[in-house]
Structures are given as structure tokens and as C-alpha cells.
Amino acid sequence: MEGLDGLLAKKKRVAKWAPDRNGSLVLSSRANWFSSSKSSKKVPSHYVTSIIDGLKKLYVKKLKPLEVAYHFSDFVSPLLANSDFDAKPMVMLLGQYSTGKTTFIKHLLKTSYPGAHIGPEPTTDRFVVVMNGPDERSVPGNTIAVQADMPFSGLTTFGTSFLSKFECSQMPHPLLENITIVDTPGVLSGEKQRTQRSYDFTGVTSWFAAKCDLILLLFDPHKLDISDEFKRVIASLQGHDDKIRVVLNKADQVDTQQLMRVYGALMWSLGRVLNTPEVTRVYIGSFNDRPINEAPTGPVGKELFEKEQDDLLSDLKNIPKKACDRRINEFVKRARAAKIHAYIISHLKKEMPAMMGKAKKQKRLIDNLEDEFVKIQKEHHLPAGDFPNVEHFREVLSGYSIDKFEKLKPKLIQAVDDMLGYDIPELLKNFGNPYD
């Protein structure tokens, strides 16, 4: 397409938060994507950090003890560090090879980034995090995963085989001052997907999905089939449905009649995989640096693509404004998951015999894990949708001795209940979203 210049010219010039002489954040005049229309509004700098600092303190004081006591990091998600709270909002791109993921990023940045490769074959063979930095360089995965100021330490659990396929691409860019973009390897299809990757691709995708603020699923009009690996990847996004947006890229390569059929086929395929009654939002366009090919679709198609691109850019533009709310949402979701995990672990411990037959009882509990989940759900009046995936939980549980687990500690549960019921609402009451 023509790029962002023409589209963003229709909107007001956008400014950026910058500190003034008094230490307050004001909107600078330098053009940028992300801003508020109220250019005269001042936000004291301590307001911006207060909610995040409050969440850090609540996590260390009330939630982390519960996670440590019941091995939450081994079953669900690694323990959080300060860098996880301070990280910029992230956008992840997923899709089969050659659907235009890397080109989409270049289209947003209006320039290439270190380590970018584009071609019709599967060119991106690694996870690439594109983020802001003082100069253009690529940092290897093993190096970036051990840096305390980076939110990627949790990726060390996937081993060296993954970290060798992970890198960070840094470059100075005004867009990257506000968001971080994650480029992923093309999801394999056909015969290629039978060649197993050397790391847990679905697990890594799930880890990034939990950290991201927006997940873009890219499709090509000529690649609408959803392979087995792609099904597993989409299934791993369960619980993050509100973050998912679908992009039908390269739509100017087919005429209007074909586009209508392609759109219908895509919606049908997604309905079978996502398993939700709601219709997923699909953006239609051609996200590259070339002008729209009007020959197949005509001027009506061009107008449609430009409107769709405007909508998608608006979605991306709102990410920093919603980042604070998203952080709170993810924190509350994690706290609820940690509570349910504590109930599960303590229930399994309670079911173990005091003396004889521990091995047989453990095997029986693991085999009948679904029934145990139902018992816990009824006993504590918990929603069934909040329980973890049974197969994954069973797989991790088989490596533990249930007899060594902790009994239920009401004080730890009460601390998390108090945090959810009183501390977080009080935090929101005292310090609202600074970008509203």
C-alpha cells in the first residue's frame, strides 16, 4: 500500500509523552503515532508509575508466596520479575509461512529491521523481538534471556535449542518507543509439519501470548487451510481471545467475487478452530509498501482496503493507552489462576494416604484428574472455565510426588482474596489510568 503517511495525514498529528522541567509528563510536538488529542493535558510522572509499582508490591507481598508454596511456576507460568511489569506493550504476529508477517512489520516501521528476511519460502526460522534500542543490532537469544532489564527470562525454561532460534532486533524508531513487535516463524503445513521442531513451538507461542497485548493472525487468500500445527497454536491461545485479531493479507491479489468466497471460507475455518459463537474481527487489506493493485477489485476494493487499514491502525494506536488496563487485567487473571492451582494441589495432597499405598493412589489420582477437578469445582464453587488444561496438568504432575505437596494454607488464600477484593480496587481508585 501507499504506507502510513497518506493514511495518518487524515488524522491529527500525534505527539509523544516527554518530561518537562518540572518532572511532569507532557505531550511533545514531535510527530508520533500514539498520543491523546488533549495536547495541553499534563500528567504528574508519579501517576504513570503508581499503578505498576502498586502491582509490583502486591505481587511480592501477597501473590508470590502462594505461587511459591504450590509450584505455580512449574505448572502454569514462571514467577514474575520487575522487568515483566515494566515491559512495553507487545504485539505478536502469527501465521503460516509467506503470509506477509515480516513485510507487515516493515510496513509499520517504514523500514527494514536487523535480521529481517523476506521470500516466498519459509524465511523467518526464529522468533524475533523487534524493540527500541540506541543503535541497530541483533542480540542472540541466550544473551537477551539473562538480562535482568528484559522481560524474557522465562524463556530459559524452553532450553538452549529454543534460545538458539530466538533473537532480539534493536533499532531506534519512534513506534518502537511505545510498543514491541514479535515476529514468529511461519507455521508449517503439509509434509513439512511432520519434521518436528527442536523446541516446543506451541509452548513458546503460548508464553508470548500471555505477555502480549495484541495477537495478529495473518492469512493469505491462497493459504486458507489451517494445518495441524496451526490448530495447536490457535488452541494454545485459549484464554486470550480478547487479544486476537485476524488479518486477511494480500487481498488485492484476487477479484471481488473471489474475495467474497475467500472471506466466507476463512470465517468458516476459524469458526471450527476457535470454538466461539462470536464472530472474529477480520481486517482485509494488503499490508506492504506497494500501491494497491486495483485491477482485480477496482476502486471499490481500494476504498475498502484503506478503511480496513485505518481500523487496524486505530487498534494498534490504542495499545499504549490500554496497556495499563491490560496489565491489571492480566494480573487479576493470574491471581485467580494461582488460587485455583492452590486448591488443586492441596486437594490432591489431602487425597493421599498417610502411610501405605501412596504410589497406587497417586497413579489413580493422575488417571482420574478430570473427576478430581469436578470435585474441587463443586467444593469451592469455582467456574469450570478457569481450570487448567487437564492433559498439560497431568503431564507436569506425573513428574512430582504428590505426597510432598503443601496442604491448603487459608492465610495465603485469604491474602489473595483481600488483594482482589480491596487492594486492587483501592489502587485503581487512587490512581486512574494516566492516559485517559
3D structure, described in words:
It comes from Nicotiana sylvestris. This is EH domain-containing protein 1-like isoform X3. It is a peripheral membrane protein. One of its GO terms (biological process) is endosomal transport. Its main location: membrane. With 436 residues, this protein is α/β, with parallel strands linked by helices. It has 2 domains: 127 residues, Topoisomerase, domain 3; 203 residues, 3-Layer(aba) Sandwich (Rossmann fold). Helix content is 47%, strand content 12%. It is built from 16 helices and 11 strands. The strands form 2 sheets. It has an 8-stranded mixed β-sheet, with helices on both faces. Strand 10, helix 10 and strand 11 form a beta-alpha-beta unit. Helix 8 packs parallel to helix 9. The N terminus is likely disordered.
Task: Chart the SSEs and their pairings.
Blueprint lengths: L3 H6 L6 E4 L4 E5 L14 E2 H25 L2 H4 L6 H5 L3 E6 L5 H9 L17 E6 L4 E4 H5 L14 H4 L2 E6 L8 E4 L17 H11 L2 E6 L8 H9 L7 E5 L7 H19 L7 E3 L9 H24 L1 H33 L6 H10 L1 H12 L9 H8 L12 H21 L6
Parallel strand pairs: 4-8, 4-9, 5-7, 9-10, 10-11
Antiparallel strand pairs: 1-2, 2-3, 5-8, 6-7
Helix pairs in contact: 2-12, 2-16, 8-9, 12-14, 12-16
Q: How large is the count of helical segments?
A: 16
Distance between the termini: 32 Å
In CATH's first tier, which class of the largest domain applies? Alpha Beta
Radius of gyration: 24 Å
DSSP, total strands = 11
List the secondary-structure elements in sequence, H or E. Answer: HEEEHHHEHEEHHEEHEHEHEHHHHHH
What is the CATH superfamily of the largest domain?
P-loop containing nucleotide triphosphate hydrolases
Shape: globular
